[in-house]
Design a protein that fits this description.
By secondary structure, this protein is an alpha+beta fold. Helix content is 26%, strand content 28%. Strand 6, helix 3 and strand 7 form a beta-alpha-beta unit.
Length: 211
């Protein structure tokens, strides 16, 4: 298992490196057969108004899936403890889901129901981009089903997840809706307002899966 430690606004001392290895390796020790690489990002916020400025983020690459956890506190060592516990729970949940999938496959037909989206999403507002790109991420995008993308969204802990739809061949985004359930954003072909499969671009609403 490969473990890589990155630091932002912080020097990674030997003591910090040893503590990360001790805590993170212990957290993933029972899951090394499914863990390929572990990336640890430690950072300190420069904004004095942020009290929980010491952050620890762990990203695990496991058999084509990405599992992520992040915690922050007033102490870097406390943040490492918290994120180690959290990533261990995430790995346990991931392993249980994989075992469930072997005995009870997910039916993708019940995951999403279509809902039409307005053609103009921003109205009279002017689209604005952030003045500065503060972080760039690269990740592999193997084709996956909608159900697999929904599971991946839960594992990475983000509000949205971009994926390569195995059925349509398009890049889609699945996201968690504020009022519950999930939505899916699909591309629309130029000119005709239709997607690749002939359906209008839409947001799908789904009940949260229990698997």
């Amino acid at each position: 298992m490969k473990l890589v430690i990155h630091g932002k606004n912080i020097e990674i001392t030997d003591a910090i490196r040893e503590y990360v290895h001790q805590k993170i390796e212990k957290a993933v020790s029972h899951f090394q057969n499914i863990t390929n690489q572990v990336d640890v990002h430690l950072s300190v916020a420069r904004n004095p108004r942020i009290s929980t400025k010491q952050a620890a983020e762990v990203t695990i690459y496991a058999n084509g899936s990405v599992i992520r956890a992040e915690e922050s506190s007033e102490s870097l060592y406390a943040s490492i403890d918290l994120v180690a516990d959290k990533i261990a729970r995430q790995l346990r949940k991931y392993k249980e889901k994989r075992q469930d999938h072997k005995t009870q496959p997910i039916s993708t037909n019940e995951v999403v129901a279509p809902e039409t989206v307005a053609a103009d999403l921003i109205g009279d507002r002017t689209a604005e981009l952030p003045q500065e790109v503060v972080r760039t991420k690269y990740f592999s995008m193997p084709p996956m089903t909608l159900a697999e993308a929904q599971e991946q969204l839960q594992l990475v802990g983000h509000d949205f997840y971009m994926f390569h739809n195995a059925e349509s061949g398009e890049i889609n985004v699945i996201y968690e809706r504020n009022h519950g359930g999930y939505g899916v954003i699909q591309p629309r072909n130029n000119g005709n307002g239709n997607g690749k499969n002939g359906k209008s671009a839409h947001v799908g609403v789904a009940e949260k899966s229990r698997v």
